[in-house]
Amino acid sequence: MKTRQVLPIVLMVVFALTRIPGVLPENFSAVYGLLFCCGVYMTGRMAWWLPLATMAVTDLGLNLYYQLALNVDAFKPYLLFNYAAYVVLILLGRRFTARASWLALLGGGIMGAILFYLITNTAAWFFNPFGNPEYTKDLAGWITALTRGTAGYPATVEFFRNTLLSGGLFTGLFAGVMKLFAAPEEQESEEEEPAEEPAESPAPEPTDAKG
Question: How many angstroms separate the CA atoms of 75 and 61, rounded?
Fold first, then answer.
């Protein structure tokens, strides 16, 4: 199995470890960059089932931890919108190819982080599962959800900053690692390609002897 096929799975394991509470700062996640890169580098159904299954298993573990250890009801239906955002991230990654430049992939990962923030915060504003009075069903309430958030908590724009930073950082890391390991394989495949044999020149046609 080639390195480019094994490496995404290794990165998935590393990503699962980063979801352990306390490993990364709050709202600083590898998920945005990882799912985007899964869309770029994974092929076929694996690009869908492996990252989404990893998210589902780790989400279940995290929610059980919050529910049992911290007595926080973490199982909320609106969290399904996170998975809608995950699908968007993978779809965005599918718009790129592994041969795209590192800067192009970095820009795509940052774009994915922005989309994730917009989708999830819009869902939090629209469904308002915690009954935040600031989230009125109008333009002002939506802008509040995207910028200021709820009183007594850090402003959501701070979470947006962390979303952008982590999206760019982990996309750059994942894409850089993939390109670093893919380069030797591409060079080997080019060296193994047999040189084309020169085309044989057609034999001259015989001429009729004249008497």
Answer: 11
